[in-house]
Design a protein that fits this description.
Blueprint lengths: L16 H12 L10 E5 L4 E3 L12 E11 L6 E6 L4 E3 L7 E3 L10 E3 L8 E10 L5 E9 L3 E6 L9 E11 L4 E6 L1 H4 L2 E9 L5 E9 L9 E8 L2 E8 L6
Parallel strand pairs: 1-9
Antiparallel strand pairs: 2-7, 3-4, 3-8, 4-5, 6-7, 8-9, 10-11, 11-14, 12-15, 13-14, 15-16
Bound molecules: 2-acetamido-2-deoxy-beta-D-glucopyranose (4 copies).
The site of one 2-acetamido-2-deoxy-beta-D-glucopyranose has 2 residues, from loops.
Family: Belongs to the nectin family.
Protein name: Poliovirus receptor-like
Pfam families: C2-set_2, V-set
């Protein structure tokens, strides 16, 4: 559900576009401005629509002069006017960003944008402001959340035959909050021959990437041994099977 609300009193009757824009900024901080239930969640790297359609009936005198988009996001924490749509033109205001495209129709009072390759920095509040002369500035707000999906993987480090301890494999768990923890399971015969370390990195998305590296001597004996990477998160274990591969030089 998306709200539209007229939040300006009548009487600010100045048609200069710049003034309208500045006033719209002030207006959007109005305590009566509503944050919509219009909330959208998209995975990092995904594409989403930011819908914006004026539903109020306009009076005969009303003229939609402009649709402008504002945002306040992780990446742009200060209110940022970033897209302006008029009868003749639809453009980004503050520097290029090809990920945003206008797909609405000005004549139908539809200011819908498409955002592709979403980043966690895009998470925040988006406002679509209609500048209508003389009646006001109905505003539609959308709360966008860009999610980092949980991913688990195990990979060979392609060790070559030798007698010195080297990394044999890495196991990675990303997109977790709180952090996932990683351990390895081996047959009894292998237990004394391997060890592992792990590291966790907090990402800008507020989730953690944990990487565990399995170490051992890359000998013939351990070649083709089966191990399991166990990723634990909130009491649940997921096991990834892995077969150690030692390469000849
Ligand atoms: C607004 O435009 C978008 C993109 O073309 C379209 O999908 C949507 O249906 C339109 N909204 C309305 C209410 O017509
Ligand atoms: C998507 O955005 C990321 C940065 O957030 C960039 O590294 C990547 O190249 C972009 N991918 C495409 C297909 O544009
Ligand atoms: C990291 O590895 C050590 C052993 O090297 C282990 O004691 C610890 O619990 C591990 N931590 C996580 C978060 O997996
Ligand atoms: C999950 O794996 C850890 C580490 O291997 C183990 O200590 C724990 O008992 C397992 N928990 C469950 C529910 O299987």
């Amino acid at each position: 559900m998306i709200f539209a609300s007229f939040s300006l009193p009548y009487g600010v009757l100045m048609s200069h576009t710049l003034f309208l824009l500045v006033f719209a900024l002030v207006c959007s901080r109005d305590a009566r401005a509503q944050v919509a239930d219009g909330s959208i969640t998209v995975d990092e790297g995904g594409t989403t629509i930011l819908p914006c359609k004026l539903t109020q009936k306009l009076s005969e005198n009303d003229n939609v002069e402009q649709i402008s988009w504002q945002r306040k996001t992780k990446g742009k924490p200060k209110l940022d006017n970033f897209f302006t749509i008029t009868k003749d033109d639809a453009r980004l205001v503050n520097g290029p960003d090809r990920r945003f495209k206008f797909i609405g129709a000005f004549a139908e009072h539809n200011g819908t944008l498409k955002l592709s390759n979403a980043s966690v920095l895009d998470t925040g509040i988006y406002s679509c402001v209609f500048s209508i002369f003389p009646s006001g500035y109905p505003t539609i707000k959308i709360e966008l959340t860009v999610r980092v999906p949980q991913r688990r993987s195990v990979e060979s480090t392609q060790p070559t035959l030798g007698n010195k301890e080297v990394p044999l494999a890495t196991c990675t768990a990303s997109g977790f909050k709180p952090p996932a923890s990683i351990s390895w399971q081996t047959d009894d015969g292998l237990k004394d021959k391997v060890r592992w370390t792990n590291s966790s990195t907090l990402q800008i998305s507020d989730t953690t990437t944990t990487v565990s590296t399995l170490f051992g001597k890359p000998t013939k004996e351990i070649n083709r041994n089966k191990v399991q990477c166990v990723i634990s998160f909130e009491g649940q274990n997921k096991t990834l099977d892995f077969e150690i591969q030692i390469y000849c030089e």
